[in-house]
Amino acid sequence: MSCLYEEAKKIYKEIGIDTDAAIKKLSEVSVSMHCWQGDDVGGFESAGELTGGIQATGNYPGKARNMEELMADIDKALSLIPGKHRINLHATYADYSNGVVSRDKLQPEHFDKWIEFAKERGLGIDINPTLFSHPLAADGLTLSHPDEKVRRFWIDHCKAIRKIGAYIGEKLGTPCLNNIWIPDGYKETPADRTSPRLRLKEALDEILSVKYDPRFLVDSVESKVFGIGVESYTVGSHEFYMNYAAKNGVMCLLDNGHYHPTESVADKIPSMLLFSDKVALHVTRGVRWDSDHVVGFTDELKEIAKEIVIAGPEKVLIGLDYFDASINRIAAWVMGMRNMQKALLGALLTPNEKLADCQNSGNFTEMFVLGEEVKSYPIGAVWDKFCEINEVPLRENWFNIVKEYEKNVLSERK
Ligand code: RNT
Ligand code: ZN
User: Is the pTM of this model over 0.70?
Assistant: First the structure.
């Protein structure tokens, strides 16, 4: 095995790539693993249906039914993923063991169990207010709702979550990313496109008017082009948030399922970074629409990873966002996380500077030829070495452990 690695090392060296350095860099990148793959975006607040224009399809047995099960599943997944990472929570994954609390009344202590969980394992935590799957979001509008009372509820919810995020960040000593995504939109072509956006703008102004130490809390806003049932108009469009973020010093979060299908988030990253220090991502895989399939080792992912590596991974907050209920949920987590890391490794093993020189000197033939040939360099041997160093199973061997867990633990969840 290490024999393979030594051979790969030589091959990469010939094109000026130091594989040991690539491995070291990769181990410094953490990815925020979304808790909601573990239970189809269910959460612990109620057993209500998922709304907000997003859908988890499938009924694979064994989904986590409570915090203990979700934590156990996360542990299992993390034991098969190389490196140190982060956990991305939604508000509805609060600790309700002392009774369910209205979302606008959530307090930091409702997340103490998660903080403890993260601390013990050396993980960071990110958070999201949950503005869907709730009676006050039932008509598809939240922060942009024309009814002041509905807006108030959601503004207070977002404020509560920011306070919680800052508390988490302080406790863990790593900034918590609070990402605001709202489902607001209309099924039919709206008569008035401006008023909902004005209301959203004012709501965000109020939410963000409370200042927190950036060492503890950072904020992002996530745009979207459309959702199921809200096909004609999305209040939080890309232009809306891009301008809002630029003017208000918050980050844009780019979800690669949230644009027109031929738009590329890889292309957006370097453009955004000319104007902001950082950008956040939700990495997903859309099949024909924003279907949130498990992240695959696709060309789209490789291009995104390339831009992250070229920009400097410290400038891009990487989070995953998909929810597949048709396959083993732990396998879905592990595969998506490992694919993200493998794509980053691929980018680290690409002679990006040399290729850029080819482009800038007009040598497009060499750029194409080298770029294509590098695609079949022995990345697998370097990936295996990375897994070996991090003491996680090589190649698909991790799946045997998931199968064991399914047999012994998941199958007991009826
Ligand atoms: C929905 C957005 C959003 C959600 C999560 C659950 O289209 O992508 O990020 O997926 O908040
Ligand atoms: Zn998203």
Answer: yes
Kindly list the protein residues whose Cβ atom lies closer than 6 A to any atom of ligand 1.
Answer: 36, 41, 54, 128, 181, 222, 224, 255, 282, 321
Alpha-carbon dihedral sign for residues 181, 183, 188, 192: negative
In this structure, is residue 17 part of a structural domain? no
In a domain, 351, yes or no: no
Print the domain residue range for 159. Answer: 29-338
- pLDDT band, residue 414 (cuts 50/70/90): confident
> Is the residue at 207 inside a domain?
yes
Q: Are 33 and 86 in contact (CB under 8 A)?
A: yes
> Ligand 1: which residue has its CA nearest to atom 10?
321
Catalytic residues: 181, 222, 224, 255, 258, 282, 290, 292, 321
Q: What residue owns the CA closest to ligand 1's atom 1? A: 54
Q: What CATH number does the domain containing 313 carry?
A: 3.20.20.150
Q: Which of 88, 100, 188, 186 is nearest to 129 (CA)?
A: 88
pLDDT at 47: 84
Quote the pLDDT of residue 305. 99
Q: Would you give the distance in Å from CA 159 to the centre of its chain?
A: 21
| Structural domains counted in the chain | 1
* Residue among 134, 181, 238 whose CB has most ligand 1 atoms within 8 A, to mutate: 181
